[in-house]
Prior knowledge:
Elements: E1 6-11, E2 15-20, E3 24-30, E4 33-36, E5 43-47, H1 49-52, E6 62-65, E7 68-69, E8 72-73, H2 76-91, E9 100-105, H3 111-123, E10 128-133, H4 134-141, E11 152-157, E12 162-168, E13 171-178, H5 182-197, E14 199-200, H6 203-213, E15 224-231, E16 237-243, H7 244-266, H8 271-280, E17 282-285, H9 294-302, E18 306-308, H10 315-325
Parallel strand pairs: 1-9, 9-10, 11-17, 17-18
Antiparallel strand pairs: 1-2, 2-3, 4-5, 4-6, 7-8, 11-12, 12-13, 14-15, 15-16
Helix pairs in contact: 2-3, 4-10, 5-6, 5-7, 7-9
Amino acid sequence: MLFAQDMGIDLGTSNTRVYVKGKGIVIDEPSVVAIDIEQTPEKVVAVGTEAKQMLGRTPGSISAVRPLKDGVIADFNVTVAMLSSIIKKAVGNSLFSRPRVMIAIPSGVTEVERKAVHDAAKSAGARYVSLIEAPMAAAIGAGLPVASPVGCMVVDIGGGSAETAILSLCDIVASRSVRAGGDRFDEAIIAYVKKKWNMLIGERTAEDIKIKLGSAYHYEGEGALDAHGRSLADGLPKNIEITSKDVREAISDTVNQMINSIKMTLEKIPPELAADIIETGIMLTGGTARLRGLDRLISLETKMPVVVADEPEGCIIRGVRLCLEKDILNLGN
């Protein structure tokens, strides 16, 4: 116990961030694992940034995969391998370096999914595991007064899910989680290009298009870029020009799903808390909160003020860090 270290993990669908008490954030890398599928058992070849660079470019014997889907574990064994690599990289591999771990998880997960995260971390070498709901961690990291008797609202939009939560007195009063996030935008762009131009593009190309042109609302300086892919008609390489308007149309269904989730959460809350939130507004966190015009569109649809947190993608890990610094890690889990 004397040598145990405290570690916080934001186990995201797109990115995993790790905080070690006394060291700060030591890992911020994509949640991607490259494995050699010809070996038994399968051998991990790379994790994180190195593995992501292999997506769509690996030989037949190497498979680059994302072990999390829509904010939850999709492949238990690969998740254990990824967490083992993360823990070893963050705190070492000695008998005395098994850490106590706090992991942020989506609020909408099932008990089975909660247990999968807990068991994966234990199997990866954690001494103790505590789970915190991601919207609570995000709200703490964004500086919202979650301990006060005043209602506040956070919408955390990551790669795999969009989570809306109303918080008061250190508890979640109402919440709703939809499995729609940045990854769904990528999938929507791939589907849109396939339907409109009969061309297939890869995940990395779709992500690049989203970052460069993506928006939820019209903005000044809209542009276009050339996208490269493979024609589904003849199998040959093909180039097309895609515009900001095209991308906005492609992702509109996913954006509307997020907004409807926010509205449905607001319908659940007591009138007193509703009055608080009308005054304090909605805080957007998560990397997808950076989507151009998303705050404006949500404000127009809900008729409430909307603010994007500073460095929104880092809110969850900042919230976990604050919990660890106050030593409220639940050692009983």
